[in-house]
Amino acid sequence: MDNTQKMNEILPFIKQWFDENQAWITRASDTIWELAEVKFTEFGSMKVLTDIFREHGFTVKTDLVQGLPTAFTAEWSNGNGPVIATLGEYDALPGLGCEIAPEKTPTRKNGHGCGHNLLGVGSMAAALAAAKAMEHFGIHGTIKYFGCPAEEGGSGKVFMVRDGVFDGLDAVARWHPINATFVSMSPSLCKFSVRYEFHGKAAHAGVTPHLGRSALDAAILMDVGVNYLQEHMPTSVRVHSIISNGGQSPNTVPELAEIWYGVTVTVKVENGCSETLPNQVLCDRMLVNLYRVGAPLFTEEEKAFAKKMNEGLTEADKAKSLRIYGITDPEVGKLDLYDQICPEQGAGKITPYSTDSGDVSWQAPMCQMFAAAQPIGTPNHSWQQVVCAGMSIGHKGMLCAGQTIAMTALDILTDPALLQKAKQEFDAQLKRYPYTNPLPAELLPGA
Ligand SMILES: [Zn+2]
Known about the structure:
This protein is α+β, with helices and mostly antiparallel strands. It is 40% helix and 16% strand. The strands form three sheets. It has a seven-stranded mixed β-sheet with strand order 1-2-4-3-5-13-6, with helices on both faces. Bound molecules: zinc ion. Zinc ion (ZN) binds at residues 114, 116, 151, 176.
């Protein structure tokens, strides 16, 4: 027994709501794209979102976590029933700003290199549309949006999880802009971000090197050691480091040096996040709803724009860029924009990235989808993603994801058996692997 009949009634309502409201929804996304606020400073973006939620009768709560003033929740209830959540992000990346053009034209300002303006507004639209449908069809329950700052290098959600902001949820549906459209059962990696500071003794490097003790040598020797260690780590483990302080000048033995690791295996000091735990029952249903909504479809003009952005890439390069998500059809290399839905969910296959949504997925059953919002062949955190996040190519991915999340939330609310099955799967997982928050209790965001 599924919920098909009910959802077939709801689908045209959601489609119509998006048709009628998409003009100002895309404007809100463009406003946040223009603001391009980096982690912990997303005050303007937060205001755009919270103003809209208040206008639509949502209850907005702020001041949820110490040191995270740009976090908020917005919820709308229609009586007792399950609480379904969606996640919004709205932080940009430093220095990635670009003009909207098919070639690289940097502005030297900050930029939405991970499309989080689309992510924040698409999920917001999903919550608003779901609330309207709940009212119209008399569906009981609560839809709740989590405004999550500092996804990029701040692990905002992990602090929010640690401090109980995500307590009391029944299910979560999230998305992220990327270069293809699919539902993903593929877990991400957990991450720890650690800095090691070495202290030595300064001395003139030419005249009295025997009196100095180089902190930089210590940092380099540590890195050499870690590179030997990597041979014996599982292939899914990634270790990345930069020497964030290597001294001031070669003619002075460095007294202080620091090496900064983004490590996947060891104890953390700065921030961290858990791997994602997608829920198969909910992902299957999300895929059904993704097919109902349909893939983002692009115009010839948008395809020509994407082709220009992809200049220099071979068909093999493009096909390879999607293989990591389990999209193995070599024919996709002929395209510049992905206008299909990939049915593969990549269960059991790790995708080597980390996200603070991982920790949310350990609080309640979570499904996740990705929507095409940039050319095939262009990675995240690229100038191409900045450009597409501010134009129609990105808007189309956002509207597809918004509709799919709204439909999935309503499907869960109207199908108690589905939620029960999803919870059974989730409870069994947590029994095998209990959740531990990776952050120390006293650690403050951005510290
Ligand atoms: Zn991102």
